[in-house]
């Protein structure tokens, strides 16, 4: 959506396909990072955007065996909004799509699922899709795969993938809460278990980590056992959690970290999770996808306008984004090996001491989460 908006703003005729009829998915996370808020500022949209209901997270705390440990501090970031805005992603996407629709050269096709790449002489020249009106084909000078971590574009393109095994999956559920209850930690580690609680005003979006492939075994132990574990980690969810009375209210989200060796081929580019699936560790995947979109718009807009887009342009995009993506994915792999590996979540004592006593470390982590390495800027677009 961000790439579609930026290209339309630059004058390019652009069509965005979304297979669902709305943006009401809750599997993507809700984080609008300081770097994204800064982009909104550079686009002149931040004041209006921040009118939408959201919560502001200025630092991140972890509850470690019931003791609060400060992890990340955003208070000194070199941006206008020094916080992560927690906002349902459907609000963010609706906002962006409304702005993009102001350009007559922007087209958003909802309930339209890309099914096939169309090729001519070894080059991608468009896509086939299904929609409620039937099958359609869309010709394109260039196709950009932005279809997430189960990307069909990437599969159809046959681009080679490097898979970094991740030992965890996530159980994703809503736990009702009292709206007045605030100021909880974001992450919880207790007796080797790890969980995230995202405050969505009248409920917590809960992400509970399990070892990969263990969902059936957890089900066999029964819902009450899972509820007890969660209450042990966060006693304040109390009796609310008993309202979860069926496994149907709990989704299994598969976590992966992988990366295409080459993000492009003639007529095609992949960005975001389609190019490099991110784990939820650090809650940075959305930020990376948006940064990719800004870089892609920067390099693609002019060549698309004057008909000179080529693989060399895409190579520049991959080169520009590879270092930040590599650094963040390496940090996620490290976190999954050493801290949250599905079997026994724990933080080394020396690291806990450093988090408690070295403010610069918390600011560094805040920078990596809030901005990411080498953040992109709108003013680089013409
Ligand atoms: C459990 C979990 C929690 C996470 N929490 C966070 C978090 O809190 N913060 C964070 O920054 N990151 C989080 N992440 C990572 C984050 O979700 C991704 O990195 C990010 O969403 C990638 O954005 P994207 O636009 O590339 O793909 P997506 O957000 O996955 O978007 C892809 C879009 O393409 C559409 N689509 C798919 N296939 C087709 C098709 N064939 N035709 C048409 N449309 C199609 C989908 O419906 C979807 O709208 C989490 C990941 C997981 C697994």
TrEMBL record:
UniProt KW Cytoplasm keyword: no
FAD-binding domain mapped to chain residues: 1-321
Key words of the record: Oxidoreductase
MF annotations from Gene Ontology: FAD binding; oxidoreductase activity
NCBIfam families: PRK06185.1-3
Name by which UniProt lists this protein: FAD-dependent oxidoreductase
Organism from which the protein derives: Spirosoma rhododendri
């Amino acid at each position: 959506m961000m790439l579609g908006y930026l290209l339309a703003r630059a004058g390019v005729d652009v069509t965005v396909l979304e297979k669902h009829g709305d943006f009401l998915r809750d599997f993507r996370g809700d984080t609008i990072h300081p770097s994204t808020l800064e982009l909104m500022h550079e686009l002149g949209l931040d004041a209006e955007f921040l009118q939408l209901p959201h919560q502001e997270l200025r630092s991140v705390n972890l509850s470690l065996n019931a003791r609060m440990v400060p992890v990340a501090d955003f208070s000194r970031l070199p941006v206008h909004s020094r916080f992560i805005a927690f906002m349902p992603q459907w609000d963010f996407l609706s906002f962006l799509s409304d702005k993009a629709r102001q350009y007559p050269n922007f087209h958003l096709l909802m309930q339209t699922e890309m099914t096939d790449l169309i090729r001519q002489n070894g080059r991608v020249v468009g896509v086939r899709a299904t929609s409620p009106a039937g099958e359609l084909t869309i010709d394109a000078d260039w196709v950009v795969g932005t279809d997430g971590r189960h990307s069909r574009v990437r599969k159809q393109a046959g681009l080679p993938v490097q898979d970094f095994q991740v030992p965890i999956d996530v159980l994703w559920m809503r736990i009702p809460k009292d709206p007045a209850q605030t100021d909880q930690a974001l992450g919880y580690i207790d007796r080797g278990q790890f969980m995230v609680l995202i405050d969505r005003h009248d409920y917590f979006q809960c992400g509970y980590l399990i070892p990969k492939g263990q969902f059936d075994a957890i089900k066999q132990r029964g819902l009450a056992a899972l509820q007890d574990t969660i209450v042990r980690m966060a006693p304040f969810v109390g009796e609310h959690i008993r309202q979860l009375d069926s496994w149907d209210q709990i989704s299994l989200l598969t976590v992966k970290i992988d990366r295409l060796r080459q993000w492009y081929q003639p007529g095609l580019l992949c960005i975001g999770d389609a190019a490099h699936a991110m784990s939820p560790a650090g809650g940075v995947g959305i930020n990376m996808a948006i940064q990719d979109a800004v870089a892609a718009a920067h390099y693609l807009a002019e060549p698309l306008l004057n008909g000179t887009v080529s693989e060399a342009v895409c190579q520049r995009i991959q080169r520009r984004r590879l270092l930040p993506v590599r650094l963040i994915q390496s940090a996620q792999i490290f976190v999954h090996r050493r801290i949250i590996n599905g079997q026994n979540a724990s933080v080394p004592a020396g690291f806990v001491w450093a988090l408690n006593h070295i403010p610069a470390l918390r600011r560094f982590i805040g920078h990596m989460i809030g901005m990411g390495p080498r953040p992109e800027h709108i003013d680089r677009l013409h």
